[in-house]
Specification:
- This protein has 3 helices and 4 strands; from the N terminus they run H-E-E-E-H-E-H.
- The chain is α+β, with helices and mostly antiparallel strands and 122 residues long.
- The protein has a single domain, classed as Ribosomal Protein S5, domain 2 (2-Layer Sandwich).
- A 4-stranded mixed β-sheet has the order 1-2-4-3, sandwiched between helices.
- Strand 1 (21-24) and strand 2 form a beta hairpin.
- Helix 2 (53-69) packs across helix 3 (91-104).
- The chain is globular and about 35 Å long.
Amino acid sequence: MDRQHRLRRQRDIDRVYREGRVFTHPLLTLRVRPNECGYPRLAVVAGKRLGKAVVRNRVRRRLREALRQLPLQPGHDLLVVARPPAAKAPFAELVTALRVLLARARLLGGSPLDRPMAAFPP
């Protein structure tokens, strides 16, 4: 992930946490706030409830890779928080959870056929 696409300052992360809209899934929580940049900025958080450092780092790496593969709408700050079940979830489930959350937040770019069926309301 490019340096410009990361939320690096703690005050930016705090702003997304305080002011952002929240979308939840059993594996992840997504907080979204519009930014003035014109490109998406991301931060991935894995707290100590997930497990030891090896587990937390693996979950962060997997989520960053999943986010890199997904087409995102520009102009938003995203804060992805891993929940404890994410530590044991396979990569495909993490990708699906991210797709569902991003579709719910209307931040998933690309064609509607690329989205999982769970992203479309009945």
